[in-house]
Fold:
Amino acid sequence: MKTFVQKHPVITFLIITFAWTWLFWLAAIPLRGQTLLLTVIVILGAYGPAIGGILTLGLRNGLRLDLSPKKIITALFAAAIIFGVLTLRYLVGNIPNYDTLAADLTLSAPIVLTALVASLVGGWVISSAVSNNPHIRARMASILPWRLPPFWTVFGLVFYALMILAAWGLAALVGSDLEYPGLWGRPALEVLPLYALTFGLTALAQGGMEEPGWRGLLQPELQRRFSPLVAALIVSAFWSLWHLPLYLNGYYPGELVGGMIGGAVFRIFLAIFLAWFYNRSGSNLFLMIFLHTCFNTLVNFLPTSDLGLLVLWLVVAVTIAVKDKMWRKLPAAQN
Structure:
């Protein structure tokens, strides 16, 4: 096993990632009408890329059971926070014009148990930052915000908000349609707590936690053989395919083919940008998690123009690819 993983870390990562995620997401197809249970199963499955990244690093260098007090305490503390965020989101309930959890909010043992397991898995993922395995710790330590590069931290904080505002202005300039979120025009004191809750949930238990896999493992491993640009395009293909069961089990509304194609186009641009940011920021996973969370949440709170964003993402992707010559393979020391 160790020899196989050493020779084929990308294949190992993809097998673990897709096996974990698709096991849960495809098994949830019969649960299309049980929205609350479907949601927590989707959350559990969403940790697949992170699990794939951590286990691949461990298997490649000799996976051992890590029961160090520091790791256990970190895992339990993080799991408690995740479970608390899930609980708080449930207590808030359905939010008119924004987010409907389920028509029936009645809890059941499977729902609570799945949420608890998902929280423990998420805690284990975050605790990899303090793993006793030096290979895991070296790649995953930046999940926690210990040493944030100042410039890239500020850049990450403002980048996507400015992108959305620029797309808004572009749409207004050319007379294109704008989509206003359901909470638009509501008092800030009402909206900001909901945004903070959504942001925390997405970062800890949804899209944000994909980053230890896609960028934490797959991007740098592919960069050993390919240029950052080619590696990013490969990542975007698997990243998009990974989402397929969410259309089959009903978690994503809309038509499958159109949804997959539209999502794939945007993920090409996102993957190029995130690859560039990952390499430029010193492989900082906390900032990758933050950016991914921004991509998933800000569009639900600010007026957006899909056409405007598409144009701007094209400009950004081409600009950074040309400026940094991303088609050139990185020196071995940077991989």
